[in-house]
Each structure stands twice: as C-alpha cells, then as structure tokens.
Amino acid sequence: MQQILLKITQRLTTNQRTFLAEIIGTFIVVVFATGSVVIDAKLNGVLGIPFVAFAPFVGIAVGVYLFSKISMAHFNPAVTLGFLITRHIKKSQLTFYFTAEIIGALLGSLFVKYVIGTEAHLGANAPNYTLSIPVIFGIETLASGLLMAVILTVVYSKALRGFSGIAIGELLVSIYSFFHLSLGLP
Questions:
Q1: How many whole angstroms separate alpha carbon 104 and alpha carbon 91?
Q2: In this structure, which of 42, 59, 62, 118 has its CB flanked by the most CB atoms within 10 Å?
Q3: Residue 159, φ and ψ in degrees, nearest 5
Q4: d(CA 30, CA 132)
Q5: Percentage above 90 pLDDT, the chain
Q6: What is the average pLDDT across 120-134?
Q7: CA 130 remoteness from chain centre
C-alpha cells in the first residue's frame, strides 16, 4: 500500500502535493476537533473537557508530522496568513492554500455530520455570550496570537525539531482548557 501511495504522489507536482496535504490535514484537524465535541455531547459530557481539549492536540500532531515537510502544515487560514506575512509563502499561493483549507474543513464537517453525529451543533465553537463582545474579541485575539507565536517559533527554531506537532498541539490543549475552565466558555 505504501508503495502505491508513493508512486501516486511522485506523479503529482509540488503544488498538487501541497494542495492535497492541506485538504487532508485540515480534514483531520476538523474531524478531531469538532468530532470530539460531538462524541462528548452524545455521551452527555462523560468524557468532558480533557477529551475535548486533547483530541485537537492529536489531530494537529498527526497532521503536522504527516504533512509539515510537504505543505508546512497550515490547516488554518489564519496560519496561512501568518506564513504570508512572514514571507514563507507567496501571494500567488494564498488562494491555493485557502481553497484547500476550505475544502478540507467542509469535508471534515460533512464527515462529522454523517459519520459521528450532529449533536452540539456539529462541535462548532461558540463564545460565551454572557461576556461582552470586546472581551470575546480579546480572548480570540489572544488565543490566535499565542497560536501564531508558537507556530512561528517552531518554524524559526531548530531547538524544537521533531517536537513541533507536540508544541502546537499542547498549546491548543492549554488554550482550550484555560479559557473553557476559567471563563466557562462552551
């Protein structure tokens, strides 16, 4: 099987491999992140925040280890935008990455809907509307900024070689756990 996949991927151009890696990686991240919420909701919250926080870590780690050498493992338009700003990708690649990430996210959401379930609004993240809009915006900005800082550190640092998926995934666990446990976010 591995040799068949190798033969197929060798026939693809670099751009085609990148596009495919971003679709598959984004699919994995969406299925693990939103699927964990749906599974927990189906089980009436028995698995709880540790499961819901840890599942995206696994998805990110798997995606980064599988695809970082092919596509730099963006899997998120915000990350792609960060890579554009830091000149890791060209403007001409922006639409290419965004399209792959949107397709991967849509396929991941369809998979969750038809295979895992529709509970908890398909695992969609929603803010705690008891908080003010500026606080919600601040939380999202802080979380996104932390994520980008870790990703850029991983990209620029040789010290984290081999541990990039773990570093990025662990940050997601920490962000999710902190904001959801301390602020009561859904």
A1: 21
A2: 59
A3: -65, -25
A4: 27
A5: 31
A6: 79
A7: 26
Residue pair 16/93 in contact (Cβ under 8 Å)? The answer is no
Query: Residue 18's closest CA among 85, 104, 86, 78?
Result: 104
| Cα(87)–Cα(106) distance, integer angstroms | 27
Helix (H, G, I), strand (E, B) or coil at 112: helix
* Number of Cβ within a 10 Å radius of residue 91: 8
Instruction: Dump the DSSP string for 132-166.
Output: -HHHHHHHHHHHHHHHHHHHHHHHH-STTTT-HHH
Residue among 108, 97, 87, 82 at smallest CA distance from 28: 108
The pTM score is 0.81
Q: How far apart are CA 59 and CA 169, in angstroms?
A: 8
Q: Terminus-to-terminus CA distance in the chain, angstroms?
A: 41
